[in-house]
Amino acid sequence: xxxxxxxxxxxxxxxxxxxxxxxxxxxxxxxxxxxxxxxxxxxxxxxxxxxxxxxxxxxxxxxxxxxxxxxxxxxxxxxxxxxxxxxxxxxxxxxxxxxxxxxxxxxxxxxxxxxxxxxxxxxxxxxxxxxxxxxxxxxxxxxxxxxxxxxxxxxxxxxxxxxxxxxxxxxxxxxxxxxxxxxxxxxxxxxxxxxxxxxxxxxxxxxxxxxxxxxxxxxxxxxxxxx
Length: 227
Hints:
Layout: E1 3-10, H1 12-19, E2 32-33, H2 38-45, E3 58-59, H3 62-74, E4 86-94, H4 95-101, E5 109-112, H5 115-118, H6 141-162, H7 165-174, E6 180-188, H8 189-199, H9 205-216, H10 221-224
Antiparallel strand pairs: 1-4, 2-3, 4-6, 5-6
Helix pairs in contact: 6-7, 8-9
């Protein structure tokens, strides 16, 4: 399970202006940078595929779009402008997915909910874990998961009553990697261009959903080189 919320995409004007600096070709730029509500954006572009929260304050003109694509096709060194298109998003995902995401260290910043400080803040429930693929039957994996949750809640109660760190350790070291953690993440189009081709065919469903989200971003073709 992965949930992506509250996404914002920023930095278009500086990215496009900077993209034209190497050839001093600013006069060829034909993009518009205006504040548009979603309906105005659709009226101009006829694009009903952009989710409301992603409606950008830019209409990339044909000249700029062509240059963007050509530079993207030339590789990351030439497509430096993508580093200036910043994305912020809230991601809720299991710890096993975050372990893979954490390999992308350059160009990313994240503030996470604290497991160390807040693991005891609420009672554990099945909804706190990504376990949609677990088999449910007597003695099955999902039954084992429920037993783990019951055990976590038992030690949580012991810790709340006693404040004994021994019981806190039981929660920390027993917690499954399917536990869902929320982080607010900042990255950019260049980071996403590195992620997309490597993860779109990954075994984990979470990566498939993440790559689908990438494709929903404004002008995602400069990331994916698709479409």
